[in-house]
Specification:
Blueprint: H1 11-14, E1 24-28, H2 33-44, E2 48-53, H3 56-62, H4 64-73, E3 76-81, H5 87-100, E4 104-109, H6 127-143, E5 147-156, H7 180-202, E6 208-213, H8 227-240, H9 253-266, H10 269-272, E7 276-278, E8 281-282, H11 303-317
Parallel strand pairs: 1-2, 1-4, 2-3, 4-5, 5-6, 6-7
Antiparallel strand pairs: 7-8
Length: about 325
Amino acid sequence: MSGSFGPQSTTDDVLQGFDLKGARVLVTGVSAGLGLETARALAAHGAAVIGTARDLGKAGRALAGARADADAGGGSIDVIELDLADLKSVRAGADRLLADGRPFDLIIANAGVMATPFGKTADGFETQFGTNHLGHFVLVNRLRPLLRSGSRVVMLSSSGHRYSDVNLEDPGFERTEYTPMGAYGRSKTANILFAVEFDRRYRDRGVRATAVHPGGIQTELTRHIDPEVIRQTIERLNANRPQGEAEFAWKTIPQGAATSVWAAVTAPADLVGGLYCEDCHVAALTTADENSREGVRAYALDPERARALWAKSEEMAGERF
């Protein structure tokens, strides 16, 4: 079953036949786009989904249709307030869930920002690294005691990891030139490396982690990028793509969220644990140039790099796990 899906598969395709009643799931960033669809699909198959959002009002309005699907499928969707760009908010949200005490079968770290102008989080970290990586690093680690044996953590990464490896000597761009996509690449590489190290630490306890690339989807994530730049980038990718690689085509949101739920539910844990997935399969290592959209860079799966990032992240967050 794990090999029968591809880039056009949707969330409902990969979850067909699955009954998730009794499963409890955390999905970050459920007020729009992939997070909204991920929460909808899992709840429609019976899961009890806890979503996070910065704006509870926006999330409530966005989730109206998803909650109807959840009711029909025997699932549920509840939302808590949590801002990944503020570790005080992250810790408060995690503490609330820890106090509740009910275990999770799945965490999907979906929320994030992309190609933002240079800025800093509430804690003084570069916006993209602080939000996409450090916020999730603290949240997932704090919730680790609630993860049952057999549970999974899915980190939303991107083919954008190929823009840059992490820079552990200068994570805040204090000595290196800031570029929006370079910073995005660092944060998405960090998402993969976190999955690699989390999987190494906890797989013997029955908890697995993986990272996924959803594909190109038109969502709020691209709001900081000029549409003309997007158009030119697509033209360049298609004109210079490696032989045998298909032309770029936008995915629908259900197609984009499919790899997340495939890696979370459908694929065997040993197939995806500690690895990077795309288009509902495990990605191959690649050394292709930036015009290729497929595969994963070796530096993003380097176990020594993953350990070093973990230590640096603990130092930056001021918390050891």
